[in-house]
Design a protein that fits this description.
single chain; about 325 residues; alpha/beta; 8-stranded parallel barrel; 10 strands; binds ligand PBG; Delta-aminolevulinic acid dehydratase
Length: about 325
């Protein structure tokens, strides 16, 4: 029967060239940020079993990886420091000779203006109890005492030369305190990428191994609850009012609706964190031959872009650039 169906969307899918031409969403290397871990006192990079292909860097291997990130045209790197010793107050975070602070200086010296250098601003890597802040005598994470430390931590990162600090502890008021601390010490040029809508998630599992976390229990009294979308938008608005330059939704895949709602609601750039567990699931299934790794990782990143992310933090950043070039 001629003339039916009248509408044939398949015409635009017939050839690779047609599909490329009508693609609604694009992914560029400059939209990708590579999270990297650096271990104090490490003499060789150490593999992270639950994140195949990701390592805890030495100071030297971190610099080399940062240089490769410049070569790949990535947008930036997000640095996590792993101290040799931890204490209840996370004091390694404030020490100018502490691992994260020296790593920031190392990477900034290595990459110059080649990419944006960002630092995860949180206490969980530095505290012996593994929480994102200091505890009061009842074991409750003490919001306001933690804020004071975050302000000082921001100054340490700024002194080390960071471009953007990224507070990830979900303390109330953290963005405002950090903004004021930076401005008071003539670091008005240092920006804030806020982990704004951050959910208590099982998908952070492999990250615990990546940062040698000693956390007992969970983060449910400060990270958000899975059922809440509007609350994610509200947290994001609050962060912007407090001075966030870029906001972030985390994790990405189980929260694409939150990402979309945030993108609709605000005018600042929106980032999403394709987290450790999202990485590990694909890598593990691919190792078993159950999923096509490259197709799955590109599909993942494209879906996060399509949902509204302008910037994606992903352990696949270097792989993605290779695949985009191919
Ligand atoms: C906190 C922080 C975490 C991640 C990034 N920053 C852990 C947490 O909040 O529990 C997780 C990243 C990932 O899983 O890839 N410093």
């Amino acid at each position: 029967m001629s003339g039916f169906p009248e509408v044939r969307p398949r015409r635009l899918r017939r050839t690779p060239a047609l599909r490329r031409m009508v693609a609604e969403t694009a992914l560029r290397p400059s939209q990708l940020v590579l999270p990297m871990f650096v271990g104090e006192g490490l003499t060789e990079p150490r593999e992270i079993a639950s994140m195949p292909g990701v390592v805890q860097h030495t100071r030297d291997s971190l610099k080399r990886a940062a240089a490769e990130a410049v070569g790949a045209g990535l947008g930036g790197v997000m640095l996590f420091g792993l101290p040799e010793t931890k204490d209840a107050e996370g004091s390694g975070a404030l020490d100018p000779a502490g691992i994260l602070n020296v790593a920031i200086t190392d990477v900034v010296a290595e990459v110059g203006d080649g990419l944006t250098v960002m630092s995860d601003l949180c206490l969980d890597e530095f505290t012996d109890h593994g929480h994102c802040g200091v505890l009061d005598p009842d074991g409750w994470v003490d919001n306001d005492r933690t804020l004071e430390i975050y302000g000082q931590m921001a100054l340490a990162h700024a002194a080390a030369g960071v471009d953007l600090v990224a507070p990830s502890g979900m303390m109330d008021g953290q963005v405002g305190v950090i903004r004021r601390a930076l401005d008071a010490e003539e670091h008005a040029g240092v920006g804030i990428l806020a982990y704004s809508a951050k959910y208590a998630s099982a998908f952070f599992g492999p990250f615990r191994e990546a940062v040698n976390s000693s956390l007992v229990g969970d983060r449910r009294t400060y990270q958000q609850d899975t059922p809440n979308r509007l609350e994610g938008v509200r947290e994001t608005r609050l962060d912007i009012e407090e001075g966030a330059d870029i906001v972030m939704v985390k994790p990405a895949l189980a929260y694409l609706d939150v990402l979309h709602a945030v993108r609709q609601a605000v005018e600042v750039p929106v980032a999403a964190y394709n987290v450790s567990g999202e990485y590990a699931m694909v890598e593990a299934a691919a190792q078993r031959g159950w999923i096509d790794r490259e197709t799955a990782l590109m599909e993942t990143l494209m879906s996060i872009r399509r949902a509204g992310a302008d910037i994606i933090l992903t352990y696949w950043a270097m792989d993605a650039v290779r695949l985009l070039d191919a």
